[in-house]
Specification:
alpha/beta; two-stranded parallel sheet
């Protein structure tokens, strides 16, 4: 008859069996966990790999759009009549959609005059120009309105009228913000620099600053602030919002005694709806005078920043492409405008 007469020996055998079972159980659970973990890793890698492939596709399409913009057959005039629009539409598929808009013919509140911001009624309830100006002098020019300015602007203004993506024609800019950007870029105390006195003298005498005179005033510092500070026309007459256009014309007619027709904004909108306008067209369309006035600094026919949105299913790429103008100090046959990506953001 088999049995265990020695309790100690019998107990040890039972303990050993339990230990073996426990070890087996632990390893079983461990391998099961590793299996699930490995499966999750593989799934993650596959998903991320697929995501990166989709990102690559959107980047390639966005690059093609920028190339089409750069190859525009009418470099002196950007408008809805350009050939690029037809070519861009050919890049679209059932699941891939593209939208492109002029981002620089909106108001850039980083530099804008008080009158334009106030008459456009861009501020949210509870805020005003004084509060905003105090804030922007502290932050300096920014591209992230929501993070820097909070709920300063109304939703309508952010959607329709405002954009951080533009260069700043110094003749159209708040003086404090011009100096703020200069100090931010050069690291110098602007009051101690020749640019400070020269700029104020021009303003005091109502003399408009040209590209060459701006370069002369800035001297060696020009390379640090160009092209964000420049003296080329800021808004594209072919794309500028009609309300912004009307407000600018009304203010300049009053402040510079230009005696512009009351319906000039409507006239220009009608003209641009039937064909692309060039800077030369504005000379004959804006009466009594365009050349040599502040209007020549406001309106041209070139778009400086484009917002390109490429969306495939739930993934969207937003790209801001900037046209970099030729430096007037080095202008020549070998120097040409080119495009640079200044922002790239994926949304899901």
């Amino acid at each position: 008859m088999n049995g265990c007469n020695d309790r100690s020996t019998c107990g040890n055998r039972g303990d050993a069996t339990f230990i073996v079972f426990a070890i087996f159980l632990v390893f079983s659970l461990l391998f099961a966990a590793l299996g699930f973990f490995a499966r999750d890793i593989i799934s993650f890698v596959v998903i991320k790999g697929d995501y990166f492939k989709k990102e690559k596709v959107l980047r390639e399409v966005s690059a093609q759009v920028i190339a089409l913009i750069a190859r525009d057959n009418k470099p002196d005039s950007d408008s809805k009549f350009d050939d690029m629009w037809g070519r861009i539409s050919l890049l679209e598929t059932e699941n891939l959609k593209i939208s492109v808009r002029d981002a620089s013919s909106l108001i850039n509140p980083n530099f804008a005059f008080e009158n334009l911001l106030v008459t456009m009624n861009v501020f949210a309830p509870g805020t005003n120009y004084a509060k905003f100006h105090e804030l922007r002098t502290v932050t300096g020019p920014v591209t992230g309105f929501s993070s820097s300015f909070g709920e300063t602007f109304s939703e309508e203004a952010l959607e329709k009228f405002l954009s951080p993506w533009s260069y700043c024609n110094v003749n159209l800019a708040n003086e404090t913000m011009v100096f703020r950007y200069y100090a931010q870029r050069t690291g110098k105390k602007v009051e101690d620099q020749p640019f400070f006195a020269a700029f104020r003298e021009k303003r005091r005498n109502n003399v408009f600053i040209s590209e060459k005179s701006l370069a002369t005033m800035l001297g060696q510092d020009y390379i640090d602030v160009f092209p964000v500070l420049f003296a080329k026309p800021q808004y594209n007459i072919n794309y500028i919002d009609e309300k912004i256009l009307a407000n600018i014309l009304h203010q300049t007619s009053r402040d510079y005694t230009l005696k512009l027709p009351e319906d000039l904004a409507e006239q220009l909108v009608v003209q641009r709806s039937s064909g692309a306008l060039t800077a030369n067209d504005l000379v004959s369309l804006i009466k009594p005078k365009f050349k040599g006035t502040i209007l020549e600094h406001y309106f041209g026919a070139v778009t400086w920043f484009w917002e390109i949105r490429v969306k495939q299913n739930s993934l969207e790429l937003v790209t801001i492409a900037a046209r970099v103008p030729v430096d007037p100090q080095t202008a020549g046959a070998n120097n040409k405008e080119f495009f640079r990506i200044v922002k790239e953001e994926f949304n899901r």
